[in-house]
């Protein structure tokens, strides 16, 4: 299958990438992407290696080589060297400040009959039953995970 994106480095870019890889004072991913570009360079005097050979030599995936070449062609040198920014992960909080206060009060209270202590799962279930986990009750499953209870209790201890 013929390459869709051809990397052709200018002499200045080649010198910059070569110096960067020789110094070795950059993030590992940035150095690896620089080496990928140097090996894929199809300019005069460049090695113009195949993607498979570059991937094997640098111990990266074939998709990584193709992705770095594509980002170099479409967005330039700096975009090819930097990792793509990840979108922020936004999760609705299941317990707000009021819910956390109720959880702590519940954890300090006497455990249910027949139990010697509260478990994380018991606390999570009781919070939902009492209606203190508003976001959890509004969620599709209407549950509060024991991990949320654990994290909340850990940060308040």
Mind explaining what this structure looks like?
- The chain is mainly alpha-helical.
- The protein has two domains: 11-81; 97-156, no CATH class.
- 59% of the residues lie in helices and 0% in strands.
- The chain has helices at residues 11-23, 28-40, 51-58, 62-75, 77-81, 97-108, 120-130, 134-138, 146-156.
- It starts with 10 loop residues before the first helix and ends with a helix.
Number of strands: 0
Helical percentage = 55-70%
Question: How are helices and strands ordered from N to C?
Answer: HHHHHHHHH
Low-confidence stretches: none
Number of helices: 9
Structural class: mainly alpha
Q: What would you call the shape? A: rod-shaped
- Strand content is under 5%
- Please describe the biggest sheet, giving its number of strands, its sense, and whether it closes into a barrel: none
Overall number of structural domains = 2
- pLDDT average, as an integer? 90
What gyration radius follows from the Cα positions, in whole Å? 27 Å
């Amino acid at each position: 299958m013929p390459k869709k994106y051809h990397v052709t480095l200018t002499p200045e870019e080649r010198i910059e990438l070569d110096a960067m890889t020789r110094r070795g004072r950059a993030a590992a991913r940035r150095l690896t992407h620089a080496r990928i570009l140097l090996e894929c360079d199809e300019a005069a005097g460049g090695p113009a290696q195949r993607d498979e050979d570059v991937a094997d030599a640098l111990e990266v995936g074939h998709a990584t080589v193709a992705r770095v070449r594509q980002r170099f062609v479409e967005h330039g040198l700096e975009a090819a060297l930097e990792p793509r920014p990840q979108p922020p992960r936004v999760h609705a909080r299941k317990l707000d400040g009021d819910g956390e206060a109720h959880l702590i009060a519940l954890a300090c209270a006497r455990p249910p009959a027949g139990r010697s202590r509260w478990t994380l799962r018991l606390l999570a279930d009781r919070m939902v039953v009492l209606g203190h986990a508003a976001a959890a009750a509004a969620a599709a499953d209407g549950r509060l995970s024991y991990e949320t209870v654990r994290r909340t209790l850990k940060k308040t201890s």
